[in-house]
Q: What sequence folds into this?
């Protein structure tokens, strides 16, 4: 292996990348908490069935989630959403999505009251209050949209459904696809 990371695999002389043995395991002491995927060979009892992945018949080893801690409440869900703010791939469970949504709702309500109180006291001008409201809206969208896309993926639907009003709420209430789908394995599959 050259200077590339443990998750990448170089072509060996005389062999192609993705040979049967797969990439080496992560170095000792590497934290798996922030790692979303573990590309090592899955155990036999947790191996997902072979499927088409992004339109290719054989995309190599099937990914499975690493031993990341489960999302167990609003702060955990918000932490996961912020850590994965640029991740429009993969899946998000119902709990992860709705706990994150509840967290963002509470934060926005508290911030809106604080901005209104500052505006009413004269500490903020009308333009500054409007700018703060717009900033809150943008930050919320930046956090909520990627998690919504991953939630659509969890029920094996395109992430574009997140922009369709009302239907996106109904689809986000749908149960997770229990099998590996085109967007990856279910979140509860830790191998």
A:
């Amino acid at each position: 292996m050259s200077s590339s990371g443990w998750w990448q695999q170089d072509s060996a002389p005389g062999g192609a990348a993705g040979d049967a043995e797969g990439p080496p395991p992560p170095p000792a002491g590497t934290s798996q908490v922030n790692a979303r995927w573990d590309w090592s060979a899955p155990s036999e009892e947790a191996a997902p069935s072979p499927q088409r992945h992004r339109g290719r018949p054989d995309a190599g080893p099937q990914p499975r989630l690493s031993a990341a801690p489960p999302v167990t409440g609003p702060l955990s869900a918000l932490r996961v959403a912020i850590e994965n703010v640029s991740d429009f791939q993969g899946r998000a469970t119902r709990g992860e999505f709705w706990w994150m949504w509840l967290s963002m709702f509470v934060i926005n309500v508290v911030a809106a009251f604080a901005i209104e109180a500052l505006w009413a006291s004269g500490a903020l001008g009308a333009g500054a209050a409007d700018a703060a409201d717009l900033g809150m809206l943008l930050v919320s969208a930046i956090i909520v949209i990627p998690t919504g896309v991953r939630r659509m993926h969890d029920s094996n639907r395109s992430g574009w459904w997140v922009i369709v009003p009302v239907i996106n709420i109904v689809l986000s209430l749908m149960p997770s696809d229990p099998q590996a789908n085109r967007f990856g394995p279910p979140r509860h599959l830790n191998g």
